[in-house]
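General statements about sequence and structure are easier to judge against a single worked case. In the encoding step, the backbone of a single protein was reduced to a row of integers, each denoting a local shape. The record that follows shows the chain in one-letter code together with its fold in token form.
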Amino acid sequence: MPPQDALRSCALFKGFTETGLQILAGIAVERTYPRGTPLFVENMLAESLFIIADGRVGITVRNGADELPLGELQRGDSLGELALVQQGQRLCSAMALTPVTAVELRSVDFQAHDPEAPGLPQAADGDRVPVRCQASGQPGSVPQRDCIASQRAARSFSSDRSTHTPSKSTK
């Protein structure tokens, strides 16, 4: 599936025009992962957003020596959105449960791109949040609503994770 089609199938990019999707597709990279291969692991540096173009991905967190399943993602789902606007570590692991094709948007490429490019959605009031490219140190900005949505998603995930009570291991 071409990157632009994968972006179009993802709810995260619902408000983007075809021009905006073309711009992002131009910096996106299609990757394939054989069954059992991690897309990323918990605590590694979060540097990319992934959109699942084909296949299924399992999401887990560590609890001591155990891996606790959180859920599965499939075609059209995204993971790692916060990595585009904020430096940090992965809060979970993502493993290919089947052969997976994913579209990757790297933070360094996203932040280096012209934030005023036509076709990318703007916040309703036009406010933008300043950001700095991790690789070059060059300033840029992202739509405020995207930053707020990512922050809400991170808080939701963190609160869900902190209230999750793992079951006892049977090993």
In short: The two ends are 41 Å apart (CA to CA). The longest helix spans residues 144-163. The mean pLDDT is 75. The chain has one domain: 3-163.
